[in-house]
From TrEMBL:
Keywords on record: FAD, Flavoprotein, Oxidoreductase
Family annotation (SUPFAM superfamilies): FAD-linked reductases, C-terminal domain (SSF54373), FAD/NAD(P)-binding domain (SSF51905)
GO molecular function: 4-hydroxybenzoate 3-monooxygenase activity
A Pfam family matched in the record: FAD_binding_3
Official protein name in the record: 4-hydroxybenzoate 3-monooxygenase
Lineage: Bacteria, Bacillati, Actinomycetota, Actinomycetes, Kitasatosporales
Domain annotation FAD-binding: ranges: 19-360
Keyword Flavoprotein: yes
Documented EC number(s): 1.14.13.2
Amino acid sequence: MTTTSPHPDSPSPAPLSHVPVVVVGAGPAGLTVGNILRAAHLDCVVLEAESREFIEGNPRAGVLEEWAVHGLRQRGLADNLLERAQLHTACEFRFGGEGYRFSYGDLTGRHHFVYPQPLLVTDLVREYVDVRGGDARFSVRDVELHDLGTDRPSVSYTCPRTGQRRLLLCDFVVGADGARGVSRAAVPPEEARTARHDYGVGWLALLAQAPPSADCVLFGIHPDGFAGHMPRGPEVTRYYLQCPPGDDPQNWSHDRVWTALRTRLGAADAPPLAEGALIERRVLDMHDYVVEPMTYGRLFLAGDAAHLVAPIAAKGMNLALHDAFLLGDALVGYLTGGDGDGLDGYSEACLRRVWDYQEFSHWLSEVYHGTSTGDPFRAGTTLARLRRLFTSPAAAGAFAEQYLGTAEHY
């Protein structure tokens, strides 16, 4: 939430201190901004509601685009990633009982890096706290943002160890605490527009203790609904199953899950799926939103606090890093040299890529879900798109460009 400065008659948060930047949220965006600031010898405080152990183990996204890895490498944040990540150069669409491999690496010379988000977060935390001496405070409670519309913003929170309220005066606040965090809620409705889109479907997100059943991502396009297979390591695979929005994960027994996966990912001559225990089951309601502008006073939103893109095209973590690169560099430019151009242009520069990725996700959703709508027209246009992808070099090139995120964003 956002408030004005604490009332003078109320209990005073203590101790009172000043720091150039307070970052709310220790995800990829917040930690990357923190690392950029520390590399420039600028102080900041990162506040996180969860424990360090939780954020380092929370299973999330795992696909990074080349430009994002290049940005991390430029900032000294990619050593473990480059050593341990898997490289993916192809994906496979399965529909009509056949498999169609799309080798975007052969087409473009580019690839994806598969590196689960918990590993990246672990790397970023260690670099920020243990190497660069950054101040990160975990398991904080009741974070409030104050006076964001002034040049003297502040952030207060409850210390989990002492139970005391603490107040941080700052020059800027980075809101990187996700879709349900206090930062997004701190922007008054009249100061920003939130554009929303609901796909009307759910995805059952599954993590299976089983080796991948293919060397690439599989997209199952089936009248029963979409299915996805995403390798996450030698012994763990991420699966998705289209389901009704708001469905109860408990409705999906082990046998029901694997029966649906075999049906929707079935293809002639394909090896059987490697089955294993399901160690995660949760339902995601497929929806998007974009907050415009991504700033309010001295508050700068980044990552899911500013925009949510459904995991249809695996773009979310990449967009978070794009925000962080632009924002971290802009803050350094202002705090070390008084250059405000980067901060002034931050929202517009981010939103160009955000909207491009949203459009691609929307297009790909129709490919994934069109045949399961029961509408013969949408099913027909879905199959036309898929056939074009494998018969038209121009269509294949355009898809690869958007899938890899290689388009320029002017």
